[in-house]
Amino acid sequence: MSDQNENPPLGAMTPRRKPKPHVEEIGGRKLKPSTLMMGHGFDPKLSEGSLKPPIFLTSTFAFESAAAGKRHFEGITGKRPGGAEGLVYSRFNNPNQEIVEDRLSVWEEAEDALVFSSGMSAIATTMLALVRQNDVIVHSGPLYAATETLIAKILSKFGITFLDFPAGATPEDIEAMLQKARDIADEKGSKVALVYLESPANPTNALVDIEGVAKARTNVFGDGEDRPPVAIDNTFLGPLWQKPLDHGADIVIYSLTKYVGGHSDLVAGAVLGDKRWLDPIRAMRNTIGTISDPNTAWMLLRSLETVELRMTRAGENAAKVCAFLKGHPKVEGLGYLGIIDDPRQQDIYERHCLGAGSTFSVFIKGGEEESFRFLDNLKIAKLAVSLGGTETLASHPAAMTHISVSDERKAALGITDNLVRISIGVEDADDLIADFEQALAAV
After folding, report:
1. What sign has the CA pseudo-torsion 113, 117, 122, 127?
2. 366: burial class by Cβ within 10 Å (0-12, 13-18, 19+)?
3. Which of 12, 346, 366, 419 has the maximum number of C-beta atoms within 10 A of its C-beta?
4. Would you say 271 and 251 are in contact if contact means Cβ atoms under 8 Å apart?
5. Res 320: pLDDT
6. CA separation for the pair 263, 273 (Å, rounded)
7. Residues near 224 by Cβ (< 8 Å), separated by ≥ 6?
8. What is the reported pLDDT for 19?
9. Tell me, what DSSP letter sits at residue 227?
């Protein structure tokens, strides 16, 4: 960001300087993320004393000298290590995006973060940056339908091979799959470029053993720099209820549209991790232009101030609603992390998760007809896709978000016609229970 000197010469170029140092601890006490969301990464002195960051609606930034412009472009293009040291062009960087990235890093204690125009642009940019022609991807299943489409139908056009394992696979099964992938890569003269996870899985809420995946990766590929990174979509539980970097993941991906944005009024994504993994992803983002716009970044700053409050309330509501649904005669089962029957899934939950979240699946007795009747009779909950907003949403994955997935794969992944996905919001829990009760009565 730029700032005026105390008494700059008339017509002089505004010199750049860095914001004041971040205050991350007081008296030896490390400040919590919820506190840092109120000011981390922004110095009001750099913006005329504005308490909140302004929206920097500019496509380009003036350089203080030609030499500075050269140096900034050397950093942006990767000609010089270390990245940009100043603002250049809003396809590369902008104050709003940089502040959001600083604050997102706090939640995961990540070295670096990047924001994108959507969750899918974050996923696509990551894969385009890390995967080369004829490489192999190993991923868990199910994935968000668009992610599966990207891997199976788009990247496959470039000779990319993919192997997948079910979310609940054992470490031994995962290791066998990674070894198979390595054998295929060796035959093709390529490499296993990426291990991609989604946990909890969308929409079944099945958990992946991140630690088990990381250990299996080491057993097959060793600890060298050339081993494939483990990336994970943490949208369902992050940033409050799961921190995958603590359990062996290298890259964490978000649809910020969901809990972080949290008001169903923006679309954005993010990638977090060590700079060595994010530098090539940043370079790809700079090239193809998948960065978030300044206005959306500004809205994310607003949302990050209340993300802990919103997620906490939604999680408490979900626990109450699921306690009601569990015993209802027209409910066949629940895919809710607060009520797990499988001992292995419970073990993963206890090791990896800090909360059960507020998005779950409810299995209505019957099939599509009964599920549609339930959905059509909801009065408070909105019939819409997405999740993590302040309002409660309900949808039918088999007929909506995952309709492009083949019937055979949906059956294999447990995406059935009686599965309804619920995302609980911050309304009154008893009102939500009353809404679900009357909607189930109509089934």
Report:
1. negative
2. middle
3. 419
4. yes
5. 98
6. 26
7. none
8. 60
9. S
Alpha-carbon 174 to chain mean position: 23
pLDDT digits (tens, 9 = 90+) for 102-145: 999 999 999 999 999 999 999 999 999 999 999 999 999 989 98
Q: Is the pLDDT assigned to residue 397 strictly greater than 90?
A: yes
What is the three-state SS of 422-440? EECCCCCHHHHHHHHHHHH
Beta strands 29-30; 25-26: pairing state: antiparallel
- List, for residues 265-317, the tens digit of each pLDDT value: 999 999 999 999 999 999 999 999 999 999 999 999 999 999 999 999 999 99
Task: Write out the two tokens for 68.
Answer: 């500075």
User: For 226-259, b where at least 16 C-beta lie within 10 A, e where not — what string?
Assistant: ebbbbbbbbbbbbbbbbbbbebbbbbbbbbbbbb
Alpha-helical regions (H) of 305-378: 307-326, 343-352, 368-376
Task: Show the tokens assigned to 407.
Answer: 């019937």
185 φ, ψ to 5°? -60, -40
| Cα 146-275-349 angle, rounded to 5 deg | 55
Continuous H helices in 48-159: 66-77, 95-108, 119-130, 145-149
